[in-house]
Amino acid sequence: MSSADVEARPREGHPDIEARLREPWxxxxxxxxxxFARQRAGAxxxxxxxxxxEVLFFGALFLTYTAARLANQxxxxxxxxxxxxxxxxxxxxxxxxxxxxxxxxxxxxEKGLFRRLTLGCLAATAALGLAFLVVKGFxxxxxIEKHLVPGAHFALAQAPAQIFFAFxxxxxxxxxxxxxxxxxxxTRLIAKGRRDPDFLKENPQVEVTALYWxxxxxxWVFLYPMLYLPGRSG
Amino acid sequence: xxxxxxxxxxxxPDELDLRLPVSYLADGHSVRSWLLTTDHKRIAILYAVxxxxxxxxxxxxxxxxxxxxxxxxxxxxxxxxxxxLFTLHGVVMxxxxxxxxxxxxxxxxxxxxxxxxxxxxxxKLNLISWYLNVGGGSLAVAALLLGGVxxxxxxxxxxxxxxxxxxxxxxxxxxxxxxxxxxxxxVNFIATIHLLRAxxxxxxxLPLFVWAMYTTSLMFVLATPVLAxxxxxxxxxxxxxxxxxxxxxxxxxxxxxxxxxxYSHPAVYIMVxxxxxxxxxxxxxxxxxxxxxxTFMVYALVAIAVIGFFTWGHHMFTSGMSxxxxxxxxxxxxxxxxxxxIKVFNWTGTLYRGQVGFESPILYALGFVGLFTLGGLxxxxxxxxxxxxxxxxxxxxxxHFHYIMVGASVSAYFGGLHFWWPKITGRxxxxxxxxxxAILMFFGFNLTFFPQFIAGYLGMPRRYHVYPPExxxxxxxxxxxxxxxxxxxxxxxxxLTWSLLFGERATNNPWDATGLEWRTSxxxxxxxxxxxxxxxxxxxxxxxxxxxxxxDQPRLPSQGSLT
Lengths: 234, 563
Ligand code: HEM
Ligand SMILES: [Cu+2]
Prior knowledge:
Chain A: InterPro entries: Cyt_c/ubiquinol_Oxase_su3, Cyt_c_oxidase-like_su3, Cyt_c_oxidase_su3-like_sf, Cyt_c_oxidase_su3_a-hlx. The complex is a heterodimer. Chain A is mainly α.
C-alpha cells in the first residue's frame, strides 16, 4: 500500500476532512490529514481482503468446472459449441471497456481535479455494465429457445452436456448478480457525486468500487474461454 | 451492595462521581441503542445473547438424541425424527454456536481493547455481520424446526439433492447467509489488527489471543467462500434442477465432499484456534509466568492455519480416492499435529514451576488442555488410513470431534467468559459455583464422550437410532454423562445471570493480569481507554525470567467479592 507517501503529503484546502473522518479513524491520535490517509488506506486494504475471499469463491467454481470437464471432455466440447460466441465476445469487449472507464474514473477521483471526467467515466461504466446485462438477456432468451436448460427437454443427447449448462447458468447468473451489485455501487457514487461536488475527490469509495469492478471483469475473462471456446478450436 | 444499582453497572447513584465517562453499558439504555450500535463491545454482547440461544436449542436436540440412545430399541423417537434431531443439533452447534462463539463474542470485545484501539476498523460492517448471523440463523433454525432436515450437518449429495424430502434448501440458505457474517468478521479483524494497533504494539508484542483471532480470520476469509459455493451448488441442483453432482448425468458426488471438507476442515481450526488463544491467556495469567516460547506459539498458530488448508482429504479416505492422494493427506494430517503438540508442550512449560492458582478460569483452561490432547491424539488415529477404515462412521469419530469441539473449544469459551466476565459486565460471579461448574463440566464431558470411543471402536455406527444390545452399557454411560453435562452447562447460565443483578462490582484488574484490556475501567467506556495507550514492552510480563518464584504473592480471596 502506498499509504506512507500519502501520509507525508500535507493536505491544504480541505476544511471538510474532519467531516469525512469516521469511527474509529477519527479517534486516532494524529492530525486529521494523517488520519484521513489512514482511513483511505484502511478502505482499500479491506476491499483487497474481501477480493481474496471472492477469488476463493470463484476459484471453487472454476475447480468444479475443471473436474467435470476433465471427466466429460467430449460432452463439454459439444455443449460449448452451442453457446452463442457472438454475444459472448461482444460482452467481453463491453466489460473490458468498462474496466477502462472505471480505471480512468478512479484515477481522476484520486487526483481530485477532474470532477466532470470522473462523473462521466462513472456514468459510462454503469452504462456499459447495463449493456452487458442487456446482451446477456438476449443470450438467455436464445438459450431458452434452443432448450439449453438442463432437464427433460434438454437439446443435446449427451447427459454430461447438462452439467456444462448447469455450470453455465449458475456461473453466469452469479456473475450477473456481482455485476448488478457493481452497477449499484457505481450509480451510488454518481448520485452522491452529483449532489456534493467534493464527494468524489480523494474518496476511497471510488477506488474500492473500482477494485470490485475489476474483479468482476476479471472473472469474466476466465469465464469467456470456459463457456464459449470449448469445442470451437480446430 | 446497594439495592438501587442497575444491572448495567456504573449507574449506582451512591457512587462517587469521578467525572469519568460512563461505561459502554450505561451509554444509552434504549433498545435502539443496542440494535443500532456500532460499538464492538455491545455487538459482542448481541452475539453472546444469540449464540447462547442457539447453544440451548442445539443442546435440547442433543438431549433428545441421548435419551433415545439410552436403550437399544426405538422408544422415544422414530427414525426420521431422530435423523432430523441430529441434523438440527449438528447444524446449529457448528454454524450458529461454535463458529461464532469465541471470535464474535470475546474476539469482538477484546481485539480492539487488546491492541489499544477504539473500535474495529469497520464498525458498521461489524453490526451488519451480526444481522447476517441472526438472519441466517433464524432462517436455518426455522427450517430445521418447522420442516426438519435429515441429511446430517454435512449435506452430502446425492442424498441432499436428489433423495431427501426435507427442508434442505432453506437450511442451506441460512448457513450460506451466515457465511457472509463470518467473512465480514474476518475482514474486519484482519484490517483492525493490521491498521489500528496502538503505538508500540508491534506484531510480536500482540497477545496470543489476538494472534489466534488473526489466524482464525484468515481462515474465515479464505475458507468460507468455498462453503458458500458448495451450498450454492446444492441449492442449484435441488431447487433449480441444475445437475452439477448428479451421477446419472456424469456428475461426481465425491467432488462435493472435496469442496465441503475444503471448508469444513479449516472450520474445525476456526473452532479451535480461538480456544487456543483464550487458553494461552488464561494459563500464563494463572501460573503467573510469561508464556513459554511466545514466538513458537505464534508460529504454531500460523502453521496450523496454513497446513490446515491441505488436510481435508482425511475425511474421505473411505469415499474413494487415489492411494497416493490418501498418502499425502494422511501425511499432512500428521504434520498438522506437530504445531498443535508444540502448543500443548508450551502450555505445560508455562505451568511448570508457575504459581498455579485454581480459580475457575484456569480450571476450564486445564480441562481444555487435557481434553484437547485426547481429542488430538485420537485425531492421529483417524489420520492413519488403516485405523480410519476401521472406525470411519462409527462413534469413535463422534467422540473424537466432540473432544475437540466441545471438550476443548466449549471449555475454553467458558474459561474465557469467566476470565473476562468482570471486565465485560463490571460484576463478579460466585467463584465457588463457578469452580463447581468447571469441574462438573469436565467430568460430565468425559462420562459422555469417553464411552463413545469404546463403542465406536467396537463397531457401533453413528447416526442410527437403534443399535445392537451389546453396546447398551456404553450408551447408558454416555447418556448419564449427558445429563451431568446439561446441568454443568445450565449452571453458568444461572449464576452468571445472578451476578449481573447482584454480583459485587469488579475492580479494573481483578486477576492482576497484564494486557491492555485490564488497563481501563470495568466495564470500559465507549472509547475503551482514558487517554491513548502506548505500549512499551512485550506481553505477559508476569514474572521476570530467571527470578525465583515469589511464594507469597497475593492471591484472590477464593470466593465472593474479587474487590
Ligand atoms: C451436551 C452436549 C452434547 C451432547 C450430549 C452431544 C451429543 C451428540 C450425539 C449423540 C451425536 C451423534 C449423532 C449421531 O451421529 O448419531 C452428536 C453429533 C454431533 N455433535 Fe454433539 N453433542 C453435544 C454438544 C455438541 C456441541 C457443543 C457441538 C459443537 C460443535 C456438537 C457438534 C456435533 C456435531 C458436528 C455432530 C455431528 C452431527 C452429524 O454428523 O450428524 N455437539 N452429538
Ligand atoms: Cu478434518
